[in-house]
UniProtKB/TrEMBL annotation:
Residue ranges with Low complexity bias: 86-99
Protein name, entry field: C6 finger domain-containing protein
The organism's taxonomic lineage, starting at the top: Eukaryota, Fungi, Dikarya, Ascomycota, Pezizomycotina
Positions with biased composition (Polar residues): 100-116
PROSITE patterns: ZN2_CY6_FUNGAL_1 (PS00463), ZN2_CY6_FUNGAL_2 (PS50048)
Domain Zn(2)-C6 fungal-type per the UniProt entry, residue ranges: 25-55
Amino acid sequence: MAPSTASSTFDSTHYFPPRRRVVQACVNCRTRKTRCDAAQPRCGLCAVQNVACVYKDAQQPRIDHNTKILLERIQMLEDRLLSSPAFAPQADDGGAAPASQLSTVQGDQLPHQRQISKVGHHESSAIWSDEGPGKGESIEPDVQIPLSHTANANHVYSWAIVRELLADDERSADATDVFFEPQPPESADEVVETPPISQTWRLFQAYDLPIDAAKCHELIHTFFAEVNIFFPLLAVDSVLATLEDVVRIECQDGSNNETIPPSRYALLLLVLCLGSFVAEGCSSIYLSDTAADGDAKGRHVHDALWGKVALLLGHIATELSLQAAQCTMLASVYLGARGRVSDSFYWTHTAAIKCEALARSLTRRGDPIEDPFRRLYWLCFIYEGDFVSEISITLPSGLAKYEDLIPYPEFSKAQQHSSPAASIQVPASESPLPPIPPSPLAGTREEVVAFQVTTNAAIRRFLNRVNSVVYDNKEQYRAARANYATWLLRVAEDMWAHHTAIYRNLPGFLLTSLPPSPPDAASPGQQLGNIPWNVARLEGRCYAGQYIIHRPFVQYVLLNMPRFETHPCRDEILKRSRMCFDGCCSFIRVFDVEPANSITCLFATGMVTFTMTMILMIATVVPPLRRILPEDVEQAIFFGTRNLRRFSRSVGRFEWHLGVLERLDSARRARMESQAMET
């Protein structure tokens, strides 16, 4: 019996419900319940029967969104199965086209095949597909941050050549596990990990906190001068209004039963805490500092203030409001500045979840999105992205789903007073605090801050796309394909063009460092610029993008060493690998400055420095890569180790990574000596 006898009686329309392919069918094929190949101008069946071929949309039943997605994915699977050579002998003899052409109908593609995720407004969608014979594959547009990726230090640390040089008998912990291990009791920074517990969360009702209203006013001024330039979340009028209410309730009128919401009170405490941290010099990290010195100068006012904040964070953690999200974000900033990575990551994730819930509520109702939430959203987006680029132990918060719906912040004088608490007015005669004099360059500083936040957010969004396209674990099947190198070259070229376009269009003052001296009031226009640490961060993101775009070429060389010399794209791959090495060396030099500023959290910068230094060390023992290394690669390796040692003065767990670099450096020098003797 012929094998096709049973299959010839199989009526697919009896088992499969009408799906998307019915829309593609012409009226004649739909009437005959025959699968239509949707050829133009006439399908195969109509051409054989010599009848008119009319395409008309069928009346489809209304289905919910989830069912539609499920049916579309079933359709994609069926198209892929029918395009297999195993189905070729079962093609219709009535003139129908082969089954492999059924899914190539123009103009009726799936929604997520048409709306391909873009890197920029002007980029071609071709870079997101791995073009093969007659088909393309697209990236899911809603997932901007992959659940797990290989762009982090853990992946490089697990490379075979790294394990070989380190001569580890068994697989050791990942490079980020050390941040989540319990602190040993004998460690030097034990006091930092366990801050003193305050007896009360009230500001002026504690004997262990020698602070008055004038000191609080000074710390608020320090916060807005030194911290708000990096994290412009709050308005100065709002914080001063809260302080005036606290002074009036707790100091001037003991019988007053008025209460302040916990989230608003915690915001004031966090502002004072961060202001004290900066005022005491704890944010300036020098290479000559020791861990003991850092702890000694940190056991002061900000420790006691943080103890009060800790008493309120439990209540705030369950609150869903703008002020509660601002509290959790500032708590993460403070803990990151202290080098407590795991705690900072926890509160960053909490802030991101709150922002996602607020964004979902605002976009669902169609309410206007005010500037305070815009600032919170994008700062949380940047901060969470920096953490997630190295740590993948939790599910993403979903914040990236709203990046096309939340506008960038607009900084103006009118909007600096738009916080809800700013509406609480206190007469000048009753205020116990002197007003902060307006700065003649306040508008200029706000303009710089606006550009700074917008630029960092745009770069962070782009780096998330790179991680999703090139480094997503679900996309690693591409590496086994024969055309992986050509696809990687095409993607890297388009991504690099977009990345360089961002920096070509940057205003010049963002990359111009202001002098440390006070600005000249006679010529304020000449003082337009940025603070040095922000300039270093912008330049660092530029070189980090150059490195992360071209790092896959270095790994490609390592994985294809036996046949790389005869590879048809050998020269182009080596050229891209050289760009990766140049990005590593430039990034390391940018952050070779004294002092480093721990307010922005040195975790992400330190992990990238650790990874780049490892890659430069590895390249010195691989002959194809050694020939294209920069001439000053040894100096860059030395600077990278020194930078990480400086960062370890803030993030003490970097001592573990320094030990890895020392072992790796000794092993690669021994390998280089043996290679020299063999030649």
